[in-house]
Amino acid sequence: MDENHREDIERCELLRVHEDIVREVNARMPEEEMLYDLAELFKVFGDSTRIKILYVLLQSEMCVCDIASILRLSQSAISHQLRVLKQSQLVKYRREGKTVLYSLADGHVQTILDQGLNHIQE
After folding, report:
1. Residues near 70 by Cβ (< 8 Å), separated by ≥ 6?
2. Most buried of 23, 44, 47, 80 (most Cβ within 10 A)?
3. Pairwise CA distance, residues 43 & 49, whole Å
4. 56-105 confidence digits (pLDDT tens)
């Protein structure tokens, strides 16, 4: 595409606003707070250690020690990232005696990971 054609595509000369389309899109837009929350959720996926933890938990429910061993990171580093993932409601935990076991919060987490991976593999 030559430079002149690209400029024509990027430039929007407001000769006429398509009010019906604008009204319809505005009616379907989520509320500002929901869009903010969505942006915050996607920020959580912006850390490769957290992504690795989520993929590990796709395989099995695990304790911090097991996750740290698999990822070759300190238990402290894993605990910190699990805290972020819990706050974002991406992982949950349960106690079994003295052991705390972590797992994915629900099926949506796997769907998000699967969709993201599919997108980058296209």
Report:
1. 56, 62
2. 44
3. 13
4. 999 999 999 999 999 999 999 999 999 999 999 999 999 999 999 999 99
